[in-house]
């Protein structure tokens, strides 16, 4: 299984300005943000006031004892306010982060659920899941922690520098001489860190996509003894993700070492000069202690900001990818002013000179100039060799794709002029590869009509010849069927999918090889149910097994994306050609 490079081979990450993409999610929670900001200002202010009390204590240690007690009392009050403000800040900031990330995850899921199949031709579902989980976790860390800590340290840095200047302009000037030496590595290495962070997250997404693909096909992997190669492929992607992370960690570690070393080297030098000023009587011991505390605060703030900068870079890359996905262009969209499907639904289907090429294979025409009219209530079978375009007809009718030219109409209206959900409510689909959800048998069938009663669910199962085996399960209809229906055979899955379509009770029924995995006895039972269900409904049946379509009102024969013949079974056999050849391959002379 080859790695999907769609997300890896992209331009380097943009600047931290990409974080502006979070603003639409933050705006609804202005009050919560304001309260968190207020608590942040209070805690930073209390931290900056505390050294003033320490200075008073140091300078007045051998003076008035009562005054000393007051200073210690004031320090306790400041500490209490600091603790309260920190707790309030943590509560609002963490709550805000969790709320915003939950909203982002919902928005992402809502977006990808509405994307057409063309979107997933370019992207593994595992990579989409990585965006919803890994990338949003980085944003949670940013909003719930990093932003708060960063703003607090910015306040400490600015306030600390101002108070340093008030304490000793001379020593502060010396401190400021060191700042450019500290800022330069942050800027230079920060750019490199941003690119590495984006690359690392892309490799993590690729790893997730590889694992998801392998696990969803684990039986096939094991059946072909491909475990070794699959493990090796996953290990390769994982090691590349690790190597990318290792490079990022090295750069960040180097930046941290440089910043902290330069910061504290400067502080030691300034303290040395300050100690000499105390000895010379140019400043009091309390002022030096106050200056030292503020200098440590400023140095700590600079060091913390250099640490947080890496997290901000990673979150910026994650935000950029999430915004890209939220704003991803889709080839199939609902119109701004949709037309409503007329009620009651008649079920007329028209393909007017339709030509279509799948986005992943733009050089090959799946359909070429196809024109087809299916009258309301008519049962039409689509037959032909594999790849002839039969299933593509159903894909276009469900508007999973739009044709490059021509028009598909439902009850006289172009599908592109209606909301997809509007006309899809009038359609029931049984796909070639039936999907069984990790839920009970009853919930799987009720997926076709969520408001159906238990009796209606069981009636649909009986009509699809599924009642007997479902009743025999350990908890009957309430038995959990496992992920992708692992507890059922292929034929049983198809019968559950058919029951789901029967329960939907739609005006148009689409069957794509619906009985291909059934044994002869079940196929006869299901065929009878489908024939009964088709009465009064427009039915399109895609089939390779011609025995299942002999009674269709009309059979349309496809070959190389074109209609090559149309008629009843008897007429097409008498006509000769492709259908007669297919019939001879499947039937004995007597059966034909």
UniProtKB/TrEMBL annotation:
Superkingdom classification of source: Bacteria
Residue ranges annotated for the ABC transmembrane type-1 domain, each copy included: 34-314
Xref: Gene3D superfamilies: ABC transporter type 1, transmembrane domain, P-loop containing nucleotide triphosphate hydrolases
TM ranges: 32-51, 71-92, 138-165, 171-190, 254-275, 287-305
Bilayer topology: Multi-pass membrane protein
Entry annotated with the keyword ATP-binding: yes
Cellular location(s): Cell membrane
GO molecular function, one term: ABC-type oligopeptide transporter activity
One Gene Ontology term from the biological process aspect of the record: oligopeptide export from mitochondrion
All copies of domain ABC transporter, residue ranges: 349-585
Pfam families per UniProt: ABC_membrane (PF00664), ABC_tran (PF00005)
Keywords: ATP-binding, Membrane, Nucleotide-binding, Transmembrane, Transmembrane helix
GO cellular component: plasma membrane
Function: Part of an ABC transporter complex. Transmembrane domains (TMD) form a pore in the inner membrane and the ATP-binding domain (NBD) is responsible for energy generation.
Protein name, per record: ATP-binding cassette domain-containing protein
Gene source species: Paragemmobacter straminiformis
